[in-house]
Amino acid sequence: MDAMGDPEFADIEAAAARIAPHVRRTPLLASAELSTQLGMFVEFKCENLQEAGAFKSRGAINAVFALPAEAAARGVATHSSGNHAAALARAAQRRGIPAFIVMPRGAPKVKRATVESFGGRVVECEPTLAAREAAAAAIIAETGATLVHPYDHPLVIAGQGTIVLELAEQTERPDTVLVPVGGGGLLSGTALAARHRWPGTRVIGVEPAGADDAFRSFTSGQLQTQLAPRTIADGLRGAMCARTLRLARANAHSIVTVKEESIVAAMRLLFERMKLVVEPSGAVPLAALLERAVPGGRTVVVLSGGNVDLDTLPWLAPAT
After folding, report:
1. Domains and CATH numbers, the chain
2. pLDDT digits over 284-308, tens only?
């Protein structure tokens, strides 16, 4: 696989072996209470308990440890609102190389603090995709670092797909796997892996209605823009790229959207019933079940991350 090619299932299998010493095998948890409430058997893949607090560690580790030594020595760079940033900083720290991280102003403080705790060198920019890309390009031109894009990268996508290989060892084949979708790396990798490991399983992406570019792109077959996404799920404000759209349309079943109030309700349900700290983006797939927006049957929900600023929980009354 070259940097311009799409990943294949063999790349996901290779990624699983490469990342095994560096990531956590996350638990798969079930709740009889929630299964009864939802009218289907539901299991939760707890990537909120992953190293650096999110599934992004899988793709970041895979990309960093696949780099040749000469390129790795110059470091890696990315732009990210938080979880990929933290994952890449941790991956670089484990390999002993620098990580240059472009983060938009206003990114959750907990996510920036995590990046810095792993030694990531943070550069702030305006909260637009164009500003993020320009800042990252400037860093790469100055340092020679290798860009590890949050989702438009075949090794990153292959790393995310390793979730399915773990799931296949933890449970029987589900009817549906639900994942959140922003840029589409998790959806692409999961759907590709599931098509090979679990033929017949539906992989469905779930997206906030206030940031519905992936839904519109998947439906139309053409990339759609989202100039001003409005959602509490800050990790899902990115836009799909040609690669992730292509892979998603080839392998995933569909993308659905959910309301903001459902995301908050799902997040609170996970805190109260499952005793799991899950960020809004990670709660989005459960919101689809609360809205009855997806088919029934045996279902796995991927809880993608748990990096939450506890001072800004959405059900807390504002300070007076």
Report:
1. 9-54+153-309 (3.40.50.1100), 57-147 (3.40.50.1100)
2. 999 999 999 999 899 999 999 998 8
